[in-house]
Amino acid sequence: MLCLVLVFLLASCGRETGIVTNPTLKRADYEKKEEGNISVGFIQTGKESDWRDANTNNFLNVFTESMGFRLVYVDGNSDPKRQIKAMYDLIAQKMDYIILDPIVEDGWEDALRTAKEEGIPVIISDREVSADPSLYTCWIGSDFEKEGESAIQCLEDYLEERDRLDDPLKIVILEGTEGATAAIGRTKGIEKGIARHKKWEVVAKKCGNFTQGEGKQVMEKILEEHDDFDVLISENDNMMFGAMDAMDDAGVSFGVDKDVITISFDALREAFKEMTAKRLIATIECNPLLASTAKQVIDKLESGQKVKKKTYTEESVFTYKNVAGVVPSRPY
Ligand code: GYE
Q1: For the segment 251-262, what is each residue's pLDDT rounded down to a tens digit?
Q2: N or C: which end of the chain has fewer CB within 10 A?
Q3: pTM score over 0.85
Q4: Residue 225 C-alpha to ligand 1 middle, in angstroms?
Q5: To 5 degrees, how large is the angle CA 255–CA 162–CA 251?
């Protein structure tokens, strides 16, 4: 009886009582910083795309109070310096964990070293950092280079079906933010694929910062300089939507069996509508729903388990030929 009372008393004290979903969670190697919910600082890139909004909402929905968390969300406002400052602010607030979606890879060494010295585990999510991996806990996200290669595979399949694989081809690339892993990796994969074809040529490659507005502006400029190209690859759906507006305005025909072959990345619900309308040939999926994987990492650390240094998410490729029925079920 005495034992039972003791067990009950032990179980009901300490910070575990604030965690509703998993009462067995306990802080492992990390010093306990405050009573109650686990505090998590989340540094987001900004609001540049619909992918990003889906990613933000996913974190807000997973790291809730009822799940045992106190989330501090910081909007990076597409400004790498603001993100670094946010990291120092969150360190000063003694967060239990920091989750970082970095805008660009470079510049994180000092801030990450400070977090490490303060004993705050940092989980990098979505894009990567160039800093030494010993400075952060782990990374979760997509294989961007593979995504780039998949885009060229889609292009090859499309051309092969039309017996055009060996024809000369003029390609335009709309790139994402300079220095961002999603842009670096996708460009690398795309260029690797293009290099297989002697008659293929990139006639323009310009940065649209992953936004729809810049996608349109940059495409307008490209259309002034190039009136003859066969393929447009946009490193996200939103820039493609902007570019589509520019092409519509300029009277350029694009899509299935039209003048310009259109391929992009992310696989937003809107992209499925464009594929159904045969204005978009393919979109390479990039999964924004990373929060539950980040939560699993925290759960593991809390119970003293080791975590994998790199975790890649599962992704698919969608073309105008396999879109049937996807739109209604697409959550973003
Ligand atoms: O493709 C784009 C976004 O980093 C994977 O950033 C992410 C990219 C995504 O804004 O739409």
Answers
A1: 999 999 999 999
A2: N
A3: yes
A4: 27
A5: 25
